[in-house]
Request: fold
Amino acid sequence: MEENSFLNVIAAAPLVSIDLIVKNDEGHVLLGKRMNRPALGYWFVPGGSIRKNERMANAFERISRSELGHPLKLEEAALLGVFEHLYDDNFLGEANIGTHYVVLAYECRLDTAARIVLDGQHSEARWWEIDELLDSASVHVNTKAYFADD
Reply:
């Protein structure tokens, strides 16, 4: 979709997305440092928007392949819940247009030794202990919300 058309969608409606709460065998969580809006500069869980007419299972596999380099299966993940993410900005940085996500958060497993292949949205990725990410000012509050009850 062309950038201006997508910006019009963001201005008019919420986006439905999938966030991947990826844990390893030690219970550490994989986060990527974002290079784009919204949440620019923060550590965040991998994720992405579901496209129009895209089945959730297909979106899950596409997002995990794109964000991690590993196509994961929806049926092997556990739904943690539905979350809302509201941002004052948007992917283009256009004034007075916020972004609203309705997020389906899924927990999944990935081996610590798996080679993570980053997409163009992240400068780096690393495994975090849950207490460490909850205490860090560089981890976005929307990511911390997934672990509030841990």
